[in-house]
Amino acid sequence: MSTADWPLFEVFIRSRHGLSHKHVGSVHAVDATNALENARELYTRRNEGTSIWVVPSNTITASAPEQKDALFTSPVDKIYRHPSFYELPAAVDKM
Amino acid sequence: MTALTQINSNHDALNTYILRMADNNLVLGQRLCEWCANAPILEEETALMNTSLDLFGQARNWLNYAVDRDASLQDCDAVTMLRDERSYLNMLICEQPNGNFADTMARHYLFDVWHRLTLEVLCNSANETVAAIAAKSILEVRYHEQRTRNWVIRLGDGTEVSHQRMQTALDDIWTYVGEMFTQDEAELSLVAQGVAPDQQTIASQWRDIVSATLAEATLTMPEDGYSQMGGKQGEHTEGLGIMLAEMQSLYRAHPGAVW
Known about the structure:
The complex is a heterodimer of chains A (95) and B (259). Chain A has a domain at 3-60: Ubiquitin-like (UB roll), CATH 3.10.20.520. Chain A is built from 3 helices and 3 strands, in the order E-E-H-E-H-H. Chain A has helices at residues 32-43, 68-72, 74-77, and strands at 8-14, 22-28, 51-56. In chain A, a hairpin with a 7-residue loop joins strand 1 and strand 2. The longest helix of chain A has 12 residues, at 32-43. The radius of gyration of chain A is 20 Å and the shape is flat. Chain A starts with 7 loop residues before the first strand and ends in an 18-residue tail after the last helix. Chain B has 259 residues and is mainly alpha-helical. Chain B has a single domain, classed as Ferritin, core subunit, four-helix bundle (Ferritin, Up-down Bundle), CATH 1.20.1260. Chain B has 10 helices and no strands. The radius of gyration of chain B is 18 Å and the shape is globular. Chains A and B meet through helix 1 of A and helix 2 and helix 6 of B.
């Protein structure tokens, strides 16, 4: 059996209620059910999770590395987007 | 250091039962270990090893209780590593060689259904320690059953080759199914006390569950023919001695060895 036959799934785990699912890695699996099982075996061995999502890797549309500048450089200059000019009331202390 | 002596093999009814439960787990767990570095894919290998470790953990719970009840058993390691083949009380289905992946999954699924049904009743055992060990084990075993069931269906209802291999695997292992539902006097005395389940009841539940799975997997349930038995009384098939020789060699060469 070749791993070429086994599609890749991305694994997302929610570690606690109230937190969002976080990408933890990927698994090979024959189908989605099997992917859930394999994710459970590989990524929740030490009591890491309360919920697992698996998503076929080939359904994810990703930004291309060469687009990095076009996509992400500009905001660095737009300091007005960062809420760093406000004085916090003492009662709020830290945000 | 543990003396390299023969472990007592005269057990009362309850310890006989406990050792049977422990040995099923030990022997099947050790068989699964043989897939280490041989499994078809990394993910599946991890799953097999996790299952194996679950089974060893459960075996340890059973063995500790057996040792508590009978000090002549020494300790958990000694009773595992110093008993010979004839003193192992596992069912024959657990010791059958791994074969191909379909053989391993067929063997494991048929055992898992039996194991889960048996543990469900044991959770309400009149013996509180037995009930507690069962309650701890059953969460893991429900998952084992789910996983192996999915593989039986996936391979049965898969390609022509996987279907054929799974059907052959079932046909081959079926001769060891009957033993799971046999009960000798020792076990029947525990049934009468409400300690152990009546395997007659479990047999019919098992049949319903397995036949539904096999139907979904487009597989044919093998005919009940000759059943090979004797594992629970220490009469084993030829593979067990070889497996134990490997498993026990280190401990026997270095008595009392620990991690």
